[in-house]
Specification:
It is a single chain. About 60% of the residues lie in helices and about 5% in strands. It is built from six helices and five strands. It has helices at about 5-40, 90-110, 120-145, 150-160, 175-200, 205-214; strands at about 45-50, 55-60, 65, 75, 170. A five-stranded antiparallel beta sheet has the order 4-3-2-1-5. Residues about 205-214 have low confidence and may be disordered.
């Protein structure tokens, strides 16, 4: 039989090792999530043309390109720094919330430095709330974006049957799908952050802590 104190030490060592391994995995996945959010925000491939659209092109949150009906040459417009160039108020609002989502997860990565100065459990919980906020903002952005599909520029590419939440002849592109996937990703990461935060106080078994004090 292994003495209780020795068993507690073995348990503690394994517990700490596993907690650190999961924490490192969480940090890596959070960094990947931040990259996904940046790609979703920047890339103009939320919706795009199909074989049935009168013109070629694609739309993002703020940048879009529409092809010339005669030459087929793409004309691109829209900038995140120029709200007047964004074709729809809904697109502007969606851009704002997706941008906030991106900033929150980048802020979470910045908070990694707090592990050197603060209680790890508190840092995990702070990051968990930031990831929950990022998730909420991304949900709002994804729900609002289709409200702008009735703009004249979108109808010019997708056809006159296009309306709010009705895409007409166009199709959803990979950036929109990636944004939806990122919502589930952020929920999982937030749950993991809260779990890690709550378990930080349990890294030492009670009997081991008492014995150490003696």
């Amino acid at each position: 039989m292994i003495p209780a104190q020795e068993a507690a030490k073995i348990y503690h060592t394994n517990y700490v090792r596993n907690a650190r391994a999961i924490g490192v995995l969480w940090q890596v996945l959070t960094t990947v999530f931040a990259i996904i959010d940046m790609v979703v925000f920047i890339q103009p491939y939320w919706i795009g043309d199909s074989v049935n659209t009168p013109q070629s092109g694609y739309f993002g949150l703020f940048h879009y390109c529409i092809g010339n009906a005669i030459t087929g040459e793409l004309t691109c417009k829209g900038s995140a720094l120029d709200f007047g160039s964004i074709p729809s108020g809904a697109f502007k609002t969606a851009m704002f919330f997706v941008g906030i989502s991106m900033l929150l997860v980048v802020g979470c990565i910045v908070c990694f430095s707090l592990f050197f100065f603060c209680n790890s459990g508190s840092v995990y919980k702070i990051c968990g709330w930031m990831q929950m906020g990022s998730c909420g903002c991304m949900v709002i952005g994804c729900l609002i974006y289709p409200d702008g599909w009735d703009s004249s520029e979108v109808k010019r590419m997708c056809g006159q049957r296009t309306d709010k939440y009705k895409l007409g002849n166009c199709t959803v592109r990979w950036a929109f799908i990636l944004a939806i996937i990122s919502i589930m990703d952020s929920l999982i990461l937030a749950f993991l952050a809260f779990t890690l935060g709550n378990r930080q106080d349990q890294l030492l078994p009670e009997d081991f802590e008492i014995e150490e004090k003696e």
